[in-house]
């Protein structure tokens, strides 16, 4: 019982900070995307590719247990990126975002950017419990991971406002069914947009258009983190 109360208190505190974050995002005219997935799904590679689309003006907050390698990769592509190292924590929390935002906002290029992309710690469980105040939650699933993950990790996929299937160029080499993924996803949350992409071609263009349209419509997730 004590553990349950502690967990509730931590999440309640996180929700209060997330509310402040939403105010910051709105006041600074930033549309925020929370990218979640397992480790190695290709989130960083996808962000590198997205940086080539000039209509998509974004900065990135990177979350990893250790190292700043992903932030450095993105900086080499000309992206404003800052790293959060969580130590042993398997997720980002709202207070971590709130702490690093002044660092991002102090950069002269920040005011000209339309999006903040948060690349959450690679994990299909914990990030689904922590509200970061984002406008939209995007879950990535790579072909090599298998098509059975949606129902194995339902809390993650229930919070998805969009699902991006990455590394689709590898489909010929894996027994991966898009139809199965779509069916499982619809059983959890209906009508979630699904995008099949890889970084070897321009398949990300449709996803880019989706992000731009979501911002133009000011789409905001209806999912309530628990």
Which sequence of strands runs across the widest sheet? Answer: 3-2-4-1-5-6-7
Shape assignment = globular
What is the count of helical runs? 8
**What portion of residues is helical?**
25-40%
The low-confidence runs, each spanning 5 or more residues with pLDDT under 50, are none
Structural class: alpha/beta
In the CATH scheme, the class would be Alpha Beta
Question: Which structural traits does this protein have?
Answer:
226 residues; alpha/beta; Rossmann fold; 7-stranded parallel beta sheet; 8 helices; 7 strands; 38% helix; globular
What's this model, at a glance?
The protein is of the alpha/beta class.
What does this protein look like?
The structure is a single chain. The chain is an alpha/beta fold and 226 residues long. The protein has a single domain (2-216), classed as P-loop containing nucleotide triphosphate hydrolases (Rossmann fold). The chain has eight helices and seven strands. It has helices at residues 2-27, 43-50, 69-75, 94-105, 149-152, 154-158, 178-188, 205-216; strands at 31-36, 58-64, 80-85, 115-119, 136-142, 162-166, 194-196. Strands 3-2-4-1-5-6-7 form a seven-stranded parallel sheet, with helices on both faces. Helix 1 (2-27) packs parallel to helix 4 (94-105). The protein is globular, with a radius of gyration of 17 Å.
